[in-house]
Amino acid sequence: MNNSVTNTARLLGAGLRALLVLTLVTGVLYPLAVTGIAQGLFGDKANGSEVKADGRVVGSSLIGQSYDLPPKKGQETPEPDLKWFQGRPANGLGTNSLNTRYELLLSGATNLAADNKDLVQQVEEAKAAVVEDNSVPGHTVRPSDVPADAVTSSGSGLDPDISPRYAELQVPRVAERNHLSVARVRKLVDGHTEGRTLGFIGEPRVDVLGLNIALRELVAGS
Amino acid sequence: MSSVLAGLLQLVALIGALALVHIPFGTYMARVYSSEKHLRVEKWIYKGIGADPDAQMRWPAYLRGVLAFSAVSVLFLYLLQRLQGILPGSLGFDPVDPAQSFNTAVSFVTNTNWQSYYGEQTMGHVVQTAGLAVQNFVSAAVGMAVAVALVRGFARSRTGDLGNFWADLVRGTLRILVPVAAVAAVILVACGVIQNFSGIHEVGQFMGGSQQWNGGAVASQEAIKELGTNGGGYFNANSAHPFENPTPFTNLFEIFLILLVPFSLTRTFGVMVGSVRQGYAILAAMATIWLGFTALMMWTEFAHHGPALQAAGGAMEGKETRFGVGGSSIFAVATTLTSTGAVDSFHSSFTGLGGGITLLGMQLGEIAPGGTGSGLYGMLIMAVIAVFIAGLMVGRTPEYLGRKIGTREMKLAACYILITPALVLVLTAASVALPTPPHSMLNPGAHGFSEVLYAFTSASNNNGSAFAGLNANTDWFNTTTGLAMLLGRFLPMVFVLALAGSLAGQRPVPATAGTLRTEKPLFTGLLVGAILIVTGLTYFPALALGPLAEGLAS
Predict the structure, then answer these.
(1) Which segment of A94-108, A129-143, B123-137 scores lowest on mean pLDDT?
(2) What's the confidence (pLDDT) of residue A104?
(3) Measured between alpha carbons, how far is B345 from B269 in angstroms, rounded to an integer?
(4) Cα B510 from chain centroid?
(5) Do residues B56 and B163 touch, judged by C-beta distance below 8 A?
(6) Which residues lie across from A205 on neighbouring strands?
(7) What burial class does residue B153 get, using C-beta atoms within 10 Å of its C-beta: 0-12 exposed, 13-18 middle, 19+ buried?
(8) CA–CA separation, A53 vs A42, rounded Å?
(9) Least CB–CB distance from A151: residue in B49, B194, B312
(10) How far apart are CA B360 and CA B372, in angstroms?
């Protein structure tokens, strides 16, 4: 009995020493070495790919933001500022999961099921809003024109991109609100559309922050 | 190019990359585990541990090593979380409460990485980097060690010796996981994954005001999270978070990392048992299931059945624009057919059948290609079952790799395949039958049942992904999933090592004209069939109540 207790203690001691040594290697040396290389070679990227405009940091090229009007008194969800291109909807909010409000410390999805009535309602409301917001005199958006990414929440709640179709759909509205010609805005969108990597990896996409920064410059210059 | 074609091409690229790399990498791993030489740094480590790396262990000693190391790891990780308040670099986060600390400690030590906490709001730098990330390495190395011990059981004869656990643990970590993870981490940073130690800070926004950011050693953890088939995200959104998985390329690269070790280990197996064709037969069975599942997943996700997805015009709920439906489908299958559980899109919002595919993938026992190590030993157990079934059909004593599969071997294999289903079904039934646990469900109806079934399937199989609508941070779920993870990890290891010991002690039987040729396509087919039938029969009633009911209704 005594013998087996000593043996167990010896074994656990060996386990603890092994864990401590391996913690030193994989939990201290490895992350420090990677951090050193990362900061030395790719400092900007290792620190979050910050984007500057007019000499001031306006966010990360990888993280989505909301482009809303300042909330009015007593208003829970602020209204979108239709002058700017809008990202994926930020109203998806599961009752016990984290949300999609473009808050970096709150990443997560709605986790609502494909047959969940709340999700059906969210999607339908989002679609109605997209149709209404983007229909301008002389150009009516049909519900069938609205792509899926315009009415669904992303996985992270921080999706920086929209599909080229959704960007294209917003062109007439953005042109009207900023008193620009549709052709100029469309050219801007084309310039900010990124195709699939090597032609087949991922999906074509438009980075909304980059597009809005360029739009602001265009408005200021015209 | 259509999205479907782009998705298929990504799959082809993945197959090509794995086909190229698995041979040299698998052979290298075989050499690592067979080499007589110790590196100088390893000698220092063995001295520190106080273990003789050349001492051969029989299966009980090997198992005691696994259990002692894992027990100490659970305790260490538990204390690290409980003491977070006084640790440096804690970002001001409070100590994690006891039930959640237990759950998380068990979760990372068992290679599950189930997370009932929100990474960016709970865990500081020290717990993430010196606690959680360390287990990402060593839990993977433990899995590989047990797999290699089983392979030695097939490769050796008339000895009970299975190698030395400490040497296998240290070599797997130092010579295999650390170098590959380091290279992968740098590649990830080059693509935009963050790697810094800054605290929570404010960064300006386009519309004015600011957003809060937190830093972290994300790339170094992301690399081993995928390579070690761990899956615990630095952030709550896991690999959907742009700081963990910023581009379509990183998405494909992360899938490659997930599949790299499990597929390559079939080569290691082939080399170590002296017939690479035996390794190919196992590889073919894994690849068949993996490709079949991926094709099915793409089909159902692109077809986007389900009222909400139909209304939206595509299955983009819970998916990122840059990955799209194709990239997300490939990731979802890879993560659930291995023991990874990382997600780049949220399975709960997949189509009903798509969710069912992720569930079934885990229920197969995560063997196609499975976790680091656990995939290979799980698949070899199924191979034993398959030769047994073949033996019954022709009335011969079954043999595999020159070893007789007798009563003792079959009992051990049968125990192995019964454990996880028992855990999953009993705990799911208990959770649904008891009054309060169902309150954790987010979605009503069949999908709510799927959430609970998914939680226990994921925990017992050490996957760690979730139908994340379920609020798992309750005492009931923290405790029961914790137990499921522990039993689902270590009981199978007991049977695997016992089987290895029993095989290693045998005298090899020469192959005759009547021996089933286990390196032929016929055997691969039999193996795939046995896996699908055994799993299908076990889980069909539960699947019918959840994802099938949901999928067929829409």
Answers:
(1) A94-108
(2) 59
(3) 33
(4) 36
(5) yes
(6) A194
(7) buried
(8) 21
(9) B312
(10) 19
Q: B400 vs B274, B391, B410, CA distance in Å? A: 14, 10, 12
Strands A205-207, A193-194: pairing is antiparallel
**Residue in chain B nearest A93 by alpha carbon:** B469
Give me the pLDDT at residue A100, please: 41
Output the DSSP codes for B415-474.
Answer: HHHHHHHHHHHHHHHHHHHSSSGGGG-SS-HHHHHHHHHHHHHHHHTT-----TTS---S
3-state SS, residue B50: coil
Q: Does A219 touch chain B (CB under 8 A)?
A: no
Residue-wise pLDDT for B1-60, tens only, equals 899 999 999 999 999 999 999 999 999 999 999 999 999 999 999 999 999 999 999 999
Task: Write out chain B residues lying below 8 Å of A53, CB-based.
Answer: 206
Give the span between the Cα atoms of B216 and B196, in whole angstroms. 5
ipTM: 0.94
Which of these, B8, B21, B1, lies nearest to B327 by C-alpha position?
B8
> What is the DSSP code string of B284-304?
HHHHHHHHHHHHHHHHHHHHT
**What are the residues facing B23 on neighbouring strands?**
none
Structure tokens at B218: 């994300």
Q: What would you measure as the largest C-alpha separation in chain A, in angstroms?
A: 91
Total length of chain B: 554
Backbone angles phi, psi at B525, to 5 degrees: -60, -45
**Cβ neighbours of A98 in B, within 8 Å:** 118, 236
> What's the pLDDT at A57?
93
Tell me which DSSP letter residue B197 carries: -
The predicted pLDDT at position A199 comes to 95
Question: Which residues in chain A are closer than 8 Å to B326, comparing Cβ atoms?
Answer: 203
Residue A93 pLDDT class (50, 70, 90 cuts): very low
Q: What's the mean pLDDT when you consider all of chain B?
A: 94
Asked if the Cβ–Cβ distance from A107 to B235 is below 8 Å, we say yes
Number of residues assigned to chain A: 222
Q: Residue A59: which H helix or E strand, with range?
A: strand A56-60
Distance CA B221, CA B198 (A): 16
**Which positions in chain B touch A39 (Cβ < 8 Å)?**
195-196
| pLDDT tens digits, one per residue of A40-72 | 999 999 999 999 998 899 999 999 998 988 878
